Amino acid sequence: MSKVLLLFSVLLFVFFSCKKDETPAVTEFYGEKVSVGNGQAWTYVQVDGQNNPISLGIQFDENALTNLPTGSIHGDEFLMQLPTEISVAPFNHVTLDWNEHGHEPMEIYDLPHFDIHFYFLSEAQRDQIGPMDTIEFQKPIAPEFLPLNYLETPDGVPRMGTHMIDLESPEIAGTGVFTHTFIYGKYDAEINFLEPMVTTSFLESKENLEKEIRHPEQWQQEGYYPNKYTITYDASTRIHSILLENLVWQN
Description:
With 251 residues, this protein is α+β, with helices and mostly antiparallel strands.
């Protein structure tokens, strides 16, 4: 009987060891670092064991929040390329935009903050979006491509497009002040970027956040789209992360 029990124990050990080994490994990729303030920032992609992207975002050390540019009329753009080892359609590149005095609309987004644009467009395509593209800025997006309770704003921004704001955000609903929000961007009635926004005061608080993202009924182009965004601080590495997470392929 003891031999049978021993054999059974060995089989259980082998079985659970194999099951453990079958757990998909997670791999991380990092984009080239760029100087921001007194620190550095970079893009970040995480993939599962089948090489499917599951997270996409930016990271920066805490020194990036000090000695940021001052005196700019518009926001200061830091261009960030995605890791070269992995493709995450429909995303092409990222910009970290620093707004010392915030931006319009006043008394809502006029606080020092970062806009993180995850662009579907190439840099060359963005350069074609001009200040007088009124028709393209104001062309309405089809209802099935507009997330629930998002509002298309009338004016556009050169090299960006038109912003679609979350009517449920506290600063828009009138229930609180702006600390963070999630924006959709469009141009010529097509979504062309996703954009978390976060104030520097929220980042400096080192509070961790996880927020669900509301989707449109349909996506206009196939690719990996997030179900939530997170804003976190790792005290051991002193690194801030702003990520689009739970990426799922949509077509």
